[in-house]
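Subgroup meeting minutes
Present: P.N., E.W., G.H.
Scribe: E.W.

1. P.N. recapped why we're keeping a running log of single-chain structure predictions: easier to compare across weeks, and new members can see raw inputs and outputs side by side.
2. G.H. added today's entry (77 aa).
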Amino acid sequence: MLIHLVSSGNSKVLRIPAALLRQYDLTDEVELLPGKDEIVIRPVARKARRDWDKAFASMHERGDDVLLIDDALGAED
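Output recorded in log:
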């Protein structure tokens, strides 16, 4: 696939077609790996629990942080 670079100040911009963005899960941030004769563009590895702290805080603010299963399940009385 041949793609032309576009000037932006002193830099060049590589416009990646939307189909490739979706196919390779590329978002606003990518990893750029310069090699001897090539440049590799990779999606940034996403952390499995990234932003969970914000999600839990938001749930608490909405009162949506109650236990779904009784905490004493299986406890002897």
